[in-house]
Structure formats: structure tokens, C-alpha cells
Design a protein that fits this description.
The protein is mainly α and 206 residues long. Helix content is 83%, strand content 0%. The protein is built from 8 helices and no strands. The longest helix has 34 residues, at 172-205.
Length: 206
Amino acid sequence: MTLLNCLLSAWYGLPFVSPNNILVSTINGTGAVIESLYVLTFIIYAPKKVKAKILGLLAVVLTVFATIAIISIVAFHGHTRKIFCGLAATIFSIVMYASPLSIMRLVIKTKSVEYMPFFLSLFCFLCGTSWFIFGLLGRDPFVAVPNGFGSGLGALQLILYLIYRNNKGRGGGEAVKKVSETTTVEKQSQLAPAVDTRAANQDSHV
């Protein structure tokens, strides 16, 4: 999602899409290169099943980007092109920033920040805040809105870290195991009535 976000944001910042926004293109273009290296490294060392899944996701990401880029050139011109590309970049930026929500849920359940690195949360907050201010100063809602959302989520992650920081490494793994076991028991209890029903049906047939 970060790769797709960087690609779309870099495209949005190009002069023929959004004039006077070349800084957005250069920074996100650099981000796209770095994210590509991350993804390629993951693909090289991942197991076969995971590798196939990530290759499929990468194909989807590149297809989505290519489709949006082609449509913006062929079907839109001037200000409408900027709005179209800006909306696409905004949507996927918000999706990217929302991706850590599952980790935040895990932190609340386990009361441990073992699986939420502090510096990742900190720089998510700093990145979102700086781009949010940049978007406000430039009066660009397509930059300000998604990064304001990211700044808020980054702040929430830092608050969670502040609350549960003393629990890091103290039973976090055991807590995750308990959550997993609880989920398994809940699933089994949901399946039990169906099993009992089938058994009852078999008895009635006998």
C-alpha cells in the first residue's frame, strides 16, 4: 500500500497534473524506489506460497497505478486531471495510514507494545504532521486531508505506546497466544451446535 501511495502521489505532483508541486513528486518518487526495494527483498526471501501472494498483490498495485495514470492522461485535462489524480492519491494514502489499525487492536487486546515499534509510530506521526502542515500552507486538500488522518493515527499509536510501554516484553507473547487460543475456542463453540445437530440427525435416521 505504501508503494502504491508513493507512485500515485509522485504522479499527482508532476507538473502536467499538479503545477508547482514538484516537491511532492521528488519525495514520493524516492519513496517508491525504496518501497520497491523492500518488496523485492521480501519476494526474494519469502516462502513459495507467500511469494506467489505478494507477486499477485504487486501485479494489482502496478495495474491500479497504470490504469489511473492512463485514464488521467486520456480522459482528463487541466484542473479535472488534478482532481482525479488527487482523489486517487488521497484514497490510497488513507488506506496506507489505516493499515496499522490491526496492530493497534492487538496492542489493546494484549496490553503490550511488543509488536508495535516505537520509532515506526513516531515517524508515522512526524511524517503525517509535516505533510499535513505542508498541505495547509499550500492550500492543497489532497495533501492535507490524508496526512492529517495519518497524523491523528500516529498520535493514537504514540498514546497507546505511552499507556502500555511498561508491558513491552512482559508476557506480550503469552498474551497473543491467549488471544489466539480464545479466538480458537470461540470458533469451536460456534461450530459445536452444528456438529451436535448433525449427530442428532444421524441418530434420528438410525
